[in-house]
Design goal:
Layout: E1 2-7, E2 10-13, E3 18-26, E4 33-39, E5 46-51, E6 58-60, E7 68-73, E8 78-83, E9 92-99, E10 112-113, E11 117-122
Parallel strand pairs: 2-11
Antiparallel strand pairs: 1-3, 3-8, 4-5, 4-9, 5-6, 7-8, 9-10, 9-11
Length: about 120
């Protein structure tokens, strides 16, 4: 069992940056693939970025490539999402996720979810 708690969301102007954090509790954190998803109002939840259990491999949705960076610190049981050059279309609730199966460029299949943190990008 893994519990995930996100933080770092907020209001930012277009072109600005935010860093999301997700703190985990529970056992075997380092064996999970981790990722970030987002859900904009009226839209389905979508994959944003994923990272392997070791941190050696990262995967991004096309919308995130070149602007977002996912990283993890297994000693701190934390995963991060650095978001730069934010756009109004990045406005969404961002969810942290943990999966027993590997992440790929197509996404991941989470077993656990955080409660979400709101990111609002103003134009």
């Amino acid at each position: 069992q893994v519990q995930l708690v996100e933080s770092g969301g907020g209001l930012v102007q277009a072109g600005g940056s935010l860093r999301l954090s997700c703190a985990a509790s529970g056992r075997a954190f380092s064996t999970y693939a981790l990722g970030w998803f987002r859900q904009a109002p009226g839209k389905e939840r979508e994959f944003v970025a994923g990272i392997s259990w070791s941190g050696d491999s990262q995967y991004y949705a096309d919308s995130a490539k070149g602007r977002f960076t996912i990283s993890r610190d297994n000693a701190k049981k934390t995963v991060y999402l650095q978001m730069n050059s934010l756009k109004p279309e990045d406005t969404a609730v961002y969810y942290c996720a943990a999966a027993l199966t590997r992440a790929t460029a197509q996404g991941m299949a989470p077993n656990y979810w955080g409660q979400g943190t709101v990111v609002t990008v103003s134009s």
